[in-house]
Amino acid sequence: MDELNNQPGFVPPAGEPNRVNPMSPNFMEGAPGPEIPPPPPVLNNPPIGETPGAFVAPPIPPAPSVTPTTNSPVSPPPPKQVDIRTMASDQSSFRTSGGTGVTPQAMKSMGKAPKKVDSAGRPVGGDKKKALLIGLGVVVFLAAAAAVANFFVLPIFLPDVELNEPPAGATEEIVEPEITPTIPIFTHVSYFTEPVDVSAEVNVNTLSLESLNAALDQTAVNKADGETGVVTEFQVTQGLTGSPVTTDEFLATLLPDVQFTTSMEEDFTGFMYDTGTEVRAGYIFALDAETADLEAAKTLFEDTFEASTSLENLFLNDPGTPAVAFKEGAAVTGIETRWLSYSNPGTSIDYGWKGPFVVISTSFDGFKKVLPKIMEALPLADTTETATTTET
């Protein structure tokens, strides 16, 4: 194999190939290089107003869309810078570079800047304001409910409970109990000097002529046995407590058409006389023990009594039609009498005075029977004093 001389300065003989040692430092000298194609000619943009040649404008990339963030109150990032080539920008760039090339220019966004909104699309402070209003409403509602319960509900279920505490330092005012004056309540004392055959109590719920007549009729039925001459003494009381009915109350009920102005004792005695066929009633009233002029008081009582047109209320049965006026009657044991006759046989009203007592009877026989049994003077009244104490 022929050895190639690759020493420096060596010139191969003519007609021989140029064989060079690959290890020689001049191995690459004179070697043909690769062929590089020339750059394509730069097409110039035609002047404004002339028909363009084969120049094709690059496509305009779409502008990025900005979507506001809805899940975070942080505002979206600013849009990226986009370079866009246009005919005008290429001409300007070509003139600036001296014909060496064109450079794309930045495209300014023509849209409006996006507004910064929160995730809900409303002001951030709206939730705080709404919460404040709700809290205030709850406080007002609870205060109103407490006021209603304090002044309307609790007094219904707890009427004796003091809802409001007394102010500090206030002293409780001591109220002295008010004592009403003592009221003497009389105790019934019979005007008979000795007990009669029967005693009874005539009680009415309310004092009226109807209730009084009904109670007297019932007493007459219960006590009458048909035996002639039997005398029954009775006392008129009222209510469950059996309060005695006074003379003024009794006369105002039996004889409502007249008003007695004569001062009378509160207590009186009633009696019934059995004729054998029916029962007749009678009454014993007394002038006030402090009456100074007995004769004047007797005359005043007689005038008022005889002027009444309701005398038939003294009878337990229908007496018939009365006579025109009272007449002087026969004296009984020295006591003068006056009487008024009625149309029914044996029926009359007889009355007379024995000391301060006036005896009125619807039976003349009954008048004569009880007159000797009546006392000569008023007894000492036995009264019971009561006092009512009330606190204000």
From TrEMBL:
Q: Where is the composition biased (Pro residues)?
A: 34-44
Composition-biased stretches, type Polar residues, lie in 88-97
Q: Where is this region: Disordered?
A: 1-122
Q: Which domain of life is it from?
A: Bacteria
Sorted keywords for this record are:
Membrane, Transmembrane, Transmembrane helix
* Start-end of Low complexity biased regions: 45-57
Q: Where are the transmembrane segments?
A: 131-158
Its protein name is: Uncharacterized protein
